[in-house]
Design goal:
The protein is an alpha/beta fold. It has one domain (2-150, 184-210): 3-Layer(aba) Sandwich (Rossmann fold), CATH 3.40.50. Helix content is 36%, strand content 21%. Strands 3-2-1-4-5-6-9 form a 7-stranded parallel beta sheet, with helices on both faces. Helix 1 crosses helix 6. The protein is globular. The two termini are 28 Å apart.
Length: 212
Amino acid sequence: MKTAIVLGATGLIGKHLIEQLIQCNDIGKIIAIARRPIDFGTEKVVCEQVCFDRLTDYADVFQGDILFSCLGTTKKQAGSISLQRKVDFDYQLQVAQIAADNKVSHYFLVSSSGANAQSRNPYLKMKGQLEDEISKLSFDKTCIIQPSLLLGKRDHFRLAETLGAHILPIVCKIPGLDKFRPILGEQVAIKMVKISHTQTYGKRTFKQDELF
């Protein structure tokens, strides 16, 4: 039986991942990483409350077979691009480094469509830089997921995503733009769990149109 670790367990993708993993017969334990205690209603899920500014103090928490890294915030929520980078880049990379040191063999990163370390867009540049750093770590299997606009029920309102959810499906009917259509967070979670059962080695990157 395997142990799965979910970073960002209360987020849009993370919560659906937990639901999917609970149903997996080969997963005996799910470690949900969170800032506050959460009851997931089953003994299969263990919530580990951590302080992200002292991640090295919690190194023992990040031990298992698979790490799903779904942590993320927005510039508006964080307050600035530098504070957003602290969550989306610094925390995720530090957790990945700890997990690699702990011999976690399989790593999943939820990145973004268009991620590119050379991008002029600060967000896409940050995501691309994170992908590059993750690729240097010693995981046996690394999987990078690049979804476009994520749809689903969130704990907080995001105006840009709400508008995009109405506009993008129409725009993406234009030939050549269908690969940018929005996707449900649940669909991404389902795909990630499927990949976790089939990826045998090396690094794989799944772009938006491969996630449906």
